[in-house]
C-alpha cells in the first residue's frame, strides 16, 4: 500500500502525526510505502500577504525536511503549483500516477486552507482515495474547547484556565518517530519535468536575514533544549526587555512553519518544572505564551470572519480610521521621532523579527496614537516577519487596536517614552537600531532634544492624539 504524506505547515519529522500514521503497517501487516510531497503555492502565499522573509524561511525548512526524509529513505517530491486549486489538481494526479491509496496531512486553522482540505476530501473520495487529517498545531484540537453553554471563550484568562483543566485530564504527549523503524527501502520516484512543475527548494544562504534564523530541525530541537536549560529559568523577569538577546526563545518562526511542534515545546517546559520546582513560575510564564498562541488558533477556527479582515468586535467597524499615507510611511520606516518605536520598526526590517513588547508598542502607536487602521499594520508585519502567522498576528493586532479580545474595556495605551523608561532604561536597544542616537546619554536616547541631532521630530503630540483616539472609541459606546 502506498501512502502520501502532504507536508504544509508541519515541516518536521519529530512529533508529526501524519508522518507517524503513514509509516504504520497496513491492515494486513505489510509495511506501507511512504511518499511525501510539498507543493509551493507562491501565488496563494502572496494573496495571504506572506512576505519574502516568511516565504524564503519556509523554503529552507522544506529543504531541510527533504534532506532529513532522504536519510530515512522517504522521497519528498516538491512542486511549484501557484495556488490551492493547483495543489488539489497535482495531488490527485500524483495519487493516480503513483497508485496512492491514502493522503495524510496535518490540519491548518485558516479558512481558505480548511475549504481547500474539505474540497480535497470530496474530490479524492470520488476516486476512492482516503484522506486523513490530524490535529497538530494546538495542544487541544482547534475549536473544541468551549464554555459550558457551548459558546467559544472570548477572553484569554478564562480560556487559559479551562485549557489548564483540560490538559490535566488529557496530558500532552508527542508522537513517536516512526521513520527510524522503516526497514523497507522506500520507492524511488522520479517525475518527468515536462509533465510536472518540478521545483527544488534553495538554501538562500546568502540572505542576511535568513542567516540569523536556523531552519534545521536538528538545530531547532537543540535551541529548544538550550532555552530550557539556560533561558526559561529567567523568562518571567527577562522576557520584557528587548535588549536582552536571550530573554525569549526566538522559536516563533519555527513554530509558525511547524519545524518545531507545540507539544514538544510544552513538554520541554513541563520537564523543567518537574526537575526544578524553583523554576515553576518562570516556566509556567512561558507556557502561558504558548497558550496565547493556542487561544488565537482556536479563535480563528471559531470565528472565520477573522480570516476575512474583519474585526473581532463588530461594533468597531464604525471606527473612522485616518487615511494618512505619509504618517503610515514614517511608521513603517522607523521615522516617527519616538526612539523606541523607530528602533523596533528598524529591528523588523533588519532582522525579520520584533520583540513582543515592541510589537505591542508599535501596534498601539499606529492604531491609537496615529489612529491608522490596524489592518495596515497587520499587513506590514505579514510582509516582514519571518514568523508571520495569521492567527497570532491578527490576534496581536486586534488586541492592540482594541477591536479584538482584550479584556480591558476599550482603551489600552502604551506610551512610547514610558515604555522605554521601563523596558530599555539604558537605551541599549535604542542604540543598537538607531546608531544616530548611540552617542547620547541614556535619557536623551529615550527622548532626544528636538533639533539637537539628525533625528526626526516627534510626528505627533501624544496628549492630543490620545485624546482624539479616545473620543473616536468613546463614540462607539454611545
Ligand atoms: P517567546 O516569548 O519565547 O514565546 C514562545 C512562543 O509562544 C513564541 O515562539 C510564539 O509561538 C508564542 N507566543 C509568544 N507570545 C505570543 C503572543 N502574544 N501571541 C501568540 N503567540 C505567542 N507571533 C507569531 O508567531 N507570528 C506573528 O505574526 C505575530 N504577530 C504579532 C503581532 C502583534 C501586534 C503582537 C502584539 C504579537 C505578535 N506575535 C506574533 C506574538 C509574539 O510577539 C511572538 O510570538 C513572539 O515575540 C515571538 O518571539 P519568541 O519566539 O522569542 O517568543
From TrEMBL:
Domain of life: Bacteria
GO terms, molecular function: deoxyribodipyrimidine photo-lyase activity; DNA binding; FAD binding
SUPFAM superfamilies hit by this protein: Cryptochrome/photolyase FAD-binding domain (SSF48173), Cryptochrome/photolyase, N-terminal domain (SSF52425)
Domain Photolyase/cryptochrome alpha/beta: 1-139
Required cofactor names: FAD; (6R)-5,10-methylene-5,6,7,8-tetrahydrofolate
Residue numbers marked as site, Electron transfer via tryptophanyl radical: 321, 374, 397
Binding site for FAD: 235, 248-252, 286, 289-296, 387-389
Cofactor note: Binds 1 FAD per subunit.
GO biological process: nucleobase-containing compound metabolic process; response to light stimulus; response to stress
Pfam families hit by this protein: DNA_photolyase, FAD_binding_7
InterPro entries the UniProt entry points to: Crypto/Photolyase_FAD-like_sf (IPR036134), Crypto/Photolyase_N_sf (IPR036155), Cryptochr/Photolyase_FAD-bd (IPR005101), Cryptochrome/DNA_photolyase_1 (IPR002081), DNA_photolyase_1_CS_C (IPR018394), DNA_photolyase_N (IPR006050), Rossmann-like_a/b/a_fold (IPR014729)
Keywords recorded for this protein, A-Z: Chromophore, FAD, Flavoprotein, Lyase
Family the UniProt entry places it in: Belongs to the DNA photolyase family.
PANTHER family found in the cross-reference section: CRYPTOCHROME, CRYPTOCHROME CIRCADIAN CLOCK 5 ISOFORM X1
Protein name as catalogued: Deoxyribodipyrimidine photo-lyase
Species of origin: Oceanospirillum sediminis
Amino acid at each position: 500500500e502506498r501512502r502520501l504524506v502532504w507536508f504544509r505547515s508541519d515541516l518536521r519529522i519529530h512529533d508529526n502525526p501524519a508522518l507517524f500514521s503513514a509509516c504504520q503497517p497496513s491492515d494486513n501487516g505489510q509495511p506501507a510505502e511512504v511518499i511525501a510531497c510539498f507543493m509551493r503555492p507562491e501565488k496563494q502565499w502572496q494573496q495571504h500577504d506572506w512576505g519574502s522573509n516568511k516565504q524564503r524561511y519556509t523554503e529552507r525548512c522544506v529543504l531541510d525536511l527533504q534532506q532529513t526524509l532522504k536519510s530515512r529513505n522517504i522521497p519528498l517530491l516538491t512542486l511549484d503549483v501557484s495556488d490551492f486549486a493547483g495543489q488539489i489538481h497535482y495531488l490527485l494526479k500524483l495519487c493516480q500516477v503513483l497508485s496512492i491509496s491514502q493522503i495524510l496531512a496535518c490540519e491548518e486553522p485558516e479558512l481558505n486552507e480548511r475549504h481547500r482540505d474539505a474540497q480535497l476530501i470530496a474530490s479524492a473520495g470520488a476516486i476512492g482515495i482516503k484522506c486523513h487529517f490530524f490535529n497538530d498545531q494546538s495542544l487541544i484540537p482547534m475549536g473544541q474547547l468551549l464554555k459550558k453553554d457551548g459558546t467559544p471563550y472570548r477572553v484569554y484568562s478564562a480560556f487559559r484556565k479551562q485549557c489548564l483543566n483540560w490538559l490535566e485530564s488529557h496530558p500532552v504527549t508527542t508522537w513517536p518517530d516512526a521513520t527510524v523503524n522503516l526497514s523497507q527501502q522506500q520507492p524511488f520516484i522520479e517525475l518527468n519535468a515536462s509533465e510536472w512543475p518540478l521545483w527544488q527548494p534553495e538554501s538562500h544562504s546568502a540572505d542576511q536575514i535568513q542567516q540569523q534564523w536556523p531552519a534545521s530541525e536538528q538545530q531547532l530541537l537543540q535551541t529548544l533544549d538550550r532555552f530550557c536549560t539556560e533561558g526559561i529559568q529567567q523568562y518571567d523577569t527577562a522576557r520584557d526587555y528587548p535588549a536582552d538577546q536571550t530573554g525569549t526563545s526566538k522559536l516563533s518562526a519555527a513554530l509558525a512553519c511547524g519545524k518545531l511542534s507545540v507539544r514538544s515545546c510544552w513538554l520541554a517546559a513541563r520537564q523543567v518544572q518537574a526537575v526544578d520546582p524553583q523554576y515553576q513560575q518562570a516556566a509556567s510564564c512561558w507556557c502561558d505564551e504558548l497558550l496565547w498562541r493556542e487561544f488565537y488558533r482556536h479563535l480563528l477556527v471559531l470565528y472565520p470572519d477573522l480570516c476575512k479582515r474583519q474585526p473581532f468586535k463588530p461594533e468597531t467597524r464604525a471606527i473612522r480610521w485616518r487615511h494618512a499615507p505619509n504618517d503610515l510611511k514614517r511608521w513603517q520606516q522607523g521615522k516617527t521621532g519616538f526612539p523606541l518605536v523607530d528602533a523596533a520598526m528598524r529591528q523588523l526590517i533588519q532582522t525579520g523579527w520584533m520583540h513582543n513588547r515592541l510589537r505591542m508598542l508599535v501596534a498601539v502607536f499606529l492604531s491609537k496614537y496615529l489612529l491608522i487602521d490596524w489592518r495596515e499594520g497587520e499587513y506590514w508585519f505579514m510582509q516582514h516577519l519571518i514568523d508571520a502567522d495569521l492567527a497570532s498576528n491578527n490576534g496581536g493586532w486586534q488586541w492592540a487596536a482594541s477591536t479584538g479580545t482584550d479584556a480591558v474595556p476599550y482603551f489600552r495605551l502604551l506610551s512610547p517614552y514610558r515604555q522605554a523608561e521601563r523596558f530599555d532604561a539604558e537605551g541599549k536597544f535604542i542604540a543598537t537600531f538607531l546608531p544616530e542616537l548611540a552617542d547620547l546619554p541614556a535619557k536623551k536616547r529615550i527622548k532626544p532634544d528636538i533639533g539637537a541631532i539628525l533625528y526626526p521630530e516627534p510626528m505627533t503630540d501624544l496628549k492630543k492624539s490620545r485624546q482624539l483616539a479616545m473620543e473616536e472609541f468613546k463614540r462607539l459606546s454611545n
